[in-house]
Amino acid sequence: MIDQKLLEILVCPVSHSKLIHIGDELISKEAKLAYPIREGIPIMLENEARKLSDKELSDF
C-alpha cells in the first residue's frame, strides 16, 4: 500500500504530470509509462518503467 499523501506530491519524472495509481503501478498518461511499486516503494526511474501502448492508455 502506498501512502495517499505521497501520491499527492509525486509526479512523473519525464513529463512532470500527475500519476494514476492502479494496482502495483503508477501510470503517467502523458509519458505513456507505468512505474512499478515494489514493497510499497514507487520506483520512479524511466529505465525501470514499462512503456504503455495506446490501447492500454485508452483503459485509463
Uncertain runs: none
Rg over C-alpha atoms, rounded to the nearest angstrom: 11 Å
Query: What would CATH call the architecture?
Result: Single Sheet
- The CATH top-level class label: Mainly Beta
Largest sheet: 5 strands, antiparallel
Count structural domains. 1
Describe the protein.
It is a single chain. The chain has a single domain (4-58), classed as N-terminal domain of TfIIb. It is globular and about 30 Å long. Strands 1, 2, 3, 4 and 5 form a 5-stranded antiparallel sheet that branches. The protein contains 2 helices and 5 strands; from the N terminus they run H-E-E-E-E-E-H. It is α+β, with helices and mostly antiparallel strands.
Q: What labels would you give this structure?
A:
single chain, 60 residues, alpha+beta, N-terminal domain of TfIIb, five-stranded antiparallel sheet, 18% helix, 28% strand, globular
Structure summarized in a few sentences:
This protein has 60 residues and is of the alpha+beta class.
Helix and strand layout, with pairings?
Blueprint lengths: L3 H6 L10 E3 L2 E4 L4 E6 L2 E2 L7 E2 L2 H5 L2
Antiparallel strand pairs: 1-2, 2-3, 3-4, 3-5
